[in-house]
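User: For my dataset I need records formatted as: sequence, then C-alpha cells, nothing else. Please produce one.
Assistant:
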Amino acid sequence: MTRRLLWIGDREHPEFEEAWRWANHREPCHYRSSIDDALNEPAKRISRILIPRSSRTPQPTQALAALNRQYPLATIANLNGSLCEGESRTGNPWKRCLAIAWHRWAYQLPNWCDENRRDPTLGGEQWIDRSASFVVVVRAQSNQCDGLIDSLRSANVRVAAVSPEQLQLAGPCTDLFCDDSVIRSDTDWESLRARFAGLLDQQGTRCHWLVSGPTYDRWRALRRGGFNFLHSKPFDLPAILRSLHGDLAECSINGK
C-alpha cells in the first residue's frame, strides 16, 4: 500500500515553491494549510510530514504531539527558509524533526522521501562512471575549495582548479564550479561570462554555484543566467556527486 507525503503550511513562499512542485509532481501529495487543519481533517496513508518554516517560529509542542498521535507511522521534517539559518549554530528548536534548508532541498528532500535512494559516496555503484566527469573549479585564491577538490579526486572525479586569469588553461568541461569568491551575483556572471566561453562544452556544461549564505534572489537570477545547481557551504559531498550526473531534483523557475 502506497504511503504519501503530507505537506503542512506555506507552499507559495519563493524559497519553498520549487520543493512543493517537485513533491507534488513526484506523486500527488496531501496538503493542509496548518497543523490544526491536519488534525481536524486527517489525511490517510501518510509516511512523511513536511512543515515549511519561513521564520524562527518556536516548536508548537502540544500541537506537534497531537500530530504524532494522529500520524504515528509518519516521520516529520521542517523545510527551513533563510530566516531560520542561524539555527544551524544555535540548534534546531523543533526537536526530533529533520531540518532541511531551502537551498539543500533538491538533494535532501528526495533522499528523505525515498528510503531506497543510495548514498553516492558508498562503493560498489557500477552505474556511476565518475571518471567521465571533468570538473573545473574557478576560485579567486589557490587555497579555496581545497577540501572539496580533494574529496572529488578521492571519488575518482577529474578536477582542475584555476583562477579567473587561468581560464584558458582548463579547456571544455562537463561541470563548471564557480566559487562565490569569483561569482557573487548574476552581475559578476554577466561581466565574466565571455571569459568562461572556452570552458563551456557544446554538449551542455552544467554550471554550479559554490556559496556561503545563499539568498533566493541571487540564486534565482543566476538560474536565469544558466546556472543549474547550488551547493552551499559547508559542502554536501553526496549531493555534489549526484549533481555531476544531473541526479538532483530540479524545477524550472524561468518566467518566475
